[in-house]
Amino acid sequence: MSDYKKERLYIICLHGIGGDRDIFGDFENAITTYSTKYTPHIEPIVIFFDYDTGSDNKSTTDFSKDLNTYLDDYFCKTPLKDTDKISLVMHSQGGLVGTLWLWETLRENRSYLNHVDAFIAIAVPFWGSKIAEIWSEIRKGWDFTGKKFPIPAGKKELQEMAFSSDSIFKFREFFIAPELEIFRSSIHSKIRPLNIAAYSKFLGGLNYVIGEPGILEGDNAVALPCARADFLYQRSLLTDYSDGNKTTLDQLSRTELSPYIIVNAVHHTITPNFDKLPGVIQIPKGCSGNKDCGHPSFKFIAAHLFGQEFPEADSDITKGLTLCSLDLNIRISEEEIKQSQISLKFKLIDGTEIKRSELSLGLPITGWPQHKKHSTKYGNHYRYQYFGDIETGGDEYDLCLHLSVPGYRTRLVEFTLKVAHSTYIDVNLIKI
pLDDT for 189-211, tens place per residue? Predict the structure, then answer.
C-alpha cells in the first residue's frame, strides 16, 4: 500500500518521574514491526515527549502545558489530516501529565479532540505512591544540606504524588464531580482508554519485602489499588442533615471510565532482557512485534493501539491478592479545627468489630498505619489514607464509618472495601 494512502497514527509516549524516553526500551521498533505485520494500512509515528522532571519549579500541570505546547509546535510543522489519529502511551507520572492534558483538551474543546484515539495509562500512581511519600520526606531533610538532590524528582512532583495531596483530590473531582460529567461523557464517546497495572508473580511474597509489609502489593513502586484509575466512592456534601445522618450502602457508586488489566511485571527493572522480571513498559529488543511477544504488556498495548483482538489476560495474577485502600476527605463547614479533634470509628456493617474479622485496616506493622493531611489549598479539608488487607473469605467487606467532631453533627457512612481497589469517601460536617 502506498504510504500516502496510509492512516497516520501518532503515538505520544510519556515517561515517569526521574525518567526519560529510555524507559520505553525498544518500543518504537516493536510497534512498527507489529503494524507492518498486522495493520499495514496504518503508519505508526512514535513521538517521545521528554519533560523537565526534576525541576523544583514545575508541577504536573506545568508539564501538561509543556506537552500541549510541544504538540502545537510539532503539528504546526506537520499539520494533522482529518484521518490522522493521536494516541498516548503513558508510564507512571506520565499518566498524570497525560490525564491533565486530556482534561484541559476536553475543557477547552481543543482541535485535538477530533484526533485522540487510544489513551493508555500504565502503572500510574493515580491515588498516590509510597515511594513518592518517602522521597518527599527525605527531601525535607536533604535540602538543609544545600546540595542537589541525587534523584531527578522535583519538590512539586513528589508532593503531588504523596498520599492525600491536593492534586489527588483534584483527580478524584475529575472522576466524580457532577458538574464535570459532560467531559467524562466525551471520554466514553470519543476516546478509548486502557488502564494497565503490574504485579510480579516471580517476586511473589518478596513484594512485601522490597518496600514495606503489606504496602506494596503491586509493582514495587505503585500499590495495585492506587494504579487502578476507577474506584468506589461515597460523596455526600449535604447543606443540612440531622445528627447521626447515615449515607447508606445503596448510595455507593463506582466510576467506570477505563478497562483495567493486571500484568506480570514490575515498575522498573535493571534487567529488561530477563523475562522473569520484566519492566512494565521496558520493551526488550527480543520483542519482535508479533502477537505472541513475550513481554507482558506489549501485546495489550499494541492490540489496543491498532484496534486488534484483545489478548487473553493472565487470571492467575489476581489469585491470592489481599490489598485494598481507603481515602477520606472530611470537609468542616465553618472553621478550621485541629485534626486530632476528628474521631473516626470503623465497624463492619453488621456491627462486628474489625479486629474480629479477617480484615485489617491501617496495617500498623508497617509503621505507616495511616496518612493524615490537612489540605494546604482548602483550609477546611482534612484527609486520611489507609491500606487494608482482606486475608481470606472473599474479596470485599462492607463497613460503616462513624464520623464525629465536638460541636458538629455526626455522620455515618457505609462503604465497601474491595481487593485491588481504592475506595474514596468525601463528606462534610456541619455545626450543631
Answer: 889 999 999 998 777 656 654 55
